[in-house]
Amino acid sequence: MANQKHLLLEQRITIQEMLSKRCSFTEIGRTLDKDPSTISKEIRNHLVFLRSGYRHIKFNACRHRLSCNKVHVCFSCNPDRHYKKCRNCPACNRNCPDFTEEICSRLLKPPYVCNSCPSRNESCTLEKRFYYADQAQAKYKELLSESRSGISYSEEEIRFLDNFISPLIKKSQSPHHICVTNSDTLMVSESTIYRLIDSGLIAARNIDLPRKVRFRHRIKKVSFKVDRTCRIGRSYEDFRCFLKEHPDIPITQLDSVEGRKGGKVLLTIHFVKAELMLAFLRNHNDSASVTRIFNDLYRILGHGLFSCIFRLCLPDNGSEFSNPKAIEFNNAGIRRTRIFYCDPSAPYQKGSAERNHEFIRMFIPKGTDLEPYTQEDINLMMDHINSYRRESIGNRAPYEMFSFLYGQKALDLLGCHLLPPQEVTLNRSIFDKEASK
User: For the chain, which has fewer Cβ within 10 Å, the N-terminal or C-terminal residue?
Assistant: First the structure.
């Protein structure tokens, strides 16, 4: 019946217009020569959620909003607010312990959106859902781009391929020979093996391929992502929308600091409000090492303290952060943090961490091999950096600010130490001093 081609922007505009006219999915499908189920999935996959009230009435999705008479729910209410009852305050749903969300019953059945609802601007204070053609097209293009980039294998699959392919490459077997003689076991193509070698994801290297080392090198960036759709719903625009709803939430910025190319690398965790930074030495710049560090921190701090400190994390688009679910949830599937991503080539969006990296470069210049350093060396370096007083936080040390925000217990568990101001040193001589002891 219907064609199998992807929806175009013009067709999505038609869907939006017909939804405003209260047309059914069948009528829309007939107009676009699409199956009604296709229209239904298109709308549900591209819903836009808005938390707005009407006229002078604020957003309130609580089931008890019409009968609630509570006052002074907040511990310290802003004196500029002159609401007689808490139900009229925009912070009501966020701070009330008895809040129970109500979802409009009309949104649980077709057309699943408020495009044609007459109450949306007259009497509704619940969360609203809309279908907008331009935003649906933008999300479609983003999903299409993500699904066609990177290498679509999990870390376990990469490990299996490495253990199988690399020893054969070391025996001077060509990828073509390996594919032909092991097709039932590998289930990958010859070009995939070359991509794995080019991206450095397996132990075999281009120098192990006798013929390839004679070819002229082609400049082609190969990216690997554990979850190719990791940025869907976690973009920087989604991050900004989340902050509008939770303006007071603390932000933690994640990044990597490289030494020598292909060698050891640092994972840096920067707490923006306190200006305190943690750094962890890793043998490889992969997703597994990042996940392992967060699991160790979760085990040390416990769920309550970890969830309080790591409320919201903002990394860049590096492949080491491409498995967000492993960081966001513990082994039992309980959420412990949230991950959003900066835009590509936009390091200024986590400028606080980038500025703090300048302190690290005072100890470890760019291009320096990190192999001689141990985690104890890195911890010592960060103690000096975190004991250095900053004008941006009232001439306090990041250590002191972090202790004020989260308590001394958290710093003790993280292994951080405050140094006397006279002993703070911002150069690599601290490693020489320690080595001479």
Answer: C
Give CA torsion, residues 177, 179, 183, 186, to 10 deg.
Answer: 130
Which token pair is 70? 């509570």
Confidence of residue 3 (pLDDT cuts 50, 70, 90): low
Q: What letter represents residue 431's amino acid?
A: F
CB distance 100 to 126 below 8 Å: no
Cis-peptide into 111, omega within 30 deg: yes
In this structure, what token pair is assigned to residue 147?
């699904």
pTM metric for this prediction? 0.56
Each residue's pLDDT tens digit, 182-234:
877 787 888 888 888 887 788 888 888 866 655 555 555 555 566 667 888 89
Q: Enumerate the domain spans of the chain.
A: 9-61+103-146, 155-214, 236-436
The topology (CATH level 3) of 236-436 is Nucleotidyltransferase; domain 5 (3.30.420)
Q: Which amino acid is at 285?
A: N
What are 248-260's pLDDT values in tens digits?
899 999 999 988 8
Those residues whose C-beta lies under 8 Å from the C-beta of residue 51, and which sit 6 or more positions away, are 59, 61, 127, 128, 245
Query: Using CA atoms, how far apart are residues 191 and 176, in angstroms rounded to an integer?
Result: 9
Residues 6+ apart with CB under 8 A from 271: 250, 252, 277, 309, 398, 402
Residue 254 and residue 313: Cα distance in Å, rounded?
7
* Tokens matching residue 322: 């491409």
Three-state DSSP class for 232? Answer: coil
- Write the DSSP string, 369-411: --TT--HHHHHHHHHHHHTS-BGGGTSB-HHHHHHHHH-HHHH
